[in-house]
Amino acid sequence: MKAIITVVVTIVVNIVVVLGEEYGWRGYLLPELTRIYGKLKATFIVGIVWALYHMPAVYLLARATDMSHPLLTCAVQAGVVFAVSFAFSYAYDLSGSLIPVLFFHSVWNVVNTTVLGDIYTNKQGLLQGNLFIMNGEGVIGFIVSGVLMLWFMWKLRIQGEVKAMETGRLQRFV
Predict the structure, then answer these.
(1) 118-152 pLDDT, tens per residue?
(2) Which carries the bigger pLDDT value, residue 119 or residue 159?
(3) DSSP calls for the chain
C-alpha cells in the first residue's frame, strides 16, 4: 500500500514538473501551428521541437552516467519523444484541455522510470535489464511508440478531414 501511495503522490507532484513543458508545447505551440498548418502537420512540427528540446539533456546525461552509445541513446529517445507527441496531441485535441496531457505525461515519467528504469540517470527500475533496449524511451519504446504514432496520425488525419469537410476547407488538412 505504501508503494502505491508513493507512486500516486509522485505522479501528482510530477504534474507540476511537466506543466511548463506541456503549456508550451500543447497549450501554446500546437494550437498556433494548427491554425496555420492543420492538426497533423502541427503535431509533426511540435514533435520535432519537443524531441530537439530533449536531445541535449539526454546526450549529456548519457555521457555523464556512462551509458553505452550516448549519441544513439539520444537519437532513439528523441524518436520516442517525437512519436509520443502524437498521442499527447490527440489527447489535447479530444479534450481541448491540458489536464489529460499533464496526467498522461506525468504517469509516463513516473511509471516508465519506476518500472523500466531511467535512461536519464542510468538506473535500473523494478525490471532489470539493458536500459537502452527495454526502457520505454529505448529501442522497445521506440518500436511501440512508432506503431502507436501511426494510429494517432490516422486518427488526427481523419479528424482533420471531418472538420475540413464541415467547414469546406478540405485541402488545408490533406
Answers:
(1) 888 889 999 999 989 999 999 999 999 999 999 99
(2) 119
(3) -HHHHHHHHHHHHHHHHHHHHHIIIIIIIHHHHHHHH-HHHHHHHHHHHHHHHHHHHHHHHHHHTT-SSHHHHHHHHHHHHHHHHHHHHHHHHHHSSSHHHHHHHHHHHHHIIIII-BTTTTB--SS-S-HHHHSTTSHHHHHHHHHHHHHHHHHHHHHHHHHHHHHT-GGGT-
How far apart CA 123 and CA 66 sit, in angstroms, is 11
The predicted pLDDT at position 168 comes to 62
Which carries the bigger pLDDT value, residue 119 or residue 169? 119
Task: Measure the N-to-C terminal CA separation of the chain; round to a whole number of Å.
Answer: 50
Rounded Cα distance between 102 and 94, Å, is 14
pTM of the complete model beyond 0.70? yes
What is the chain's alpha carbon radius of gyration, rounded to the nearest angstrom?
Answer: 17
Q: What is the DSSP string of 2-20?
A: HHHHHHHHHHHHHHHHHHH
State the pLDDT at residue 128: 93
Angle between helices 39-64 and 139-167 (to 10 degrees): 160
Give the largest CA-CA distance in the chain.
55
For residue 145, count CB atoms less than 10 angstroms from its CB and return exposed for 0-12, middle for 13-18, buried for 19 or more.
Answer: buried
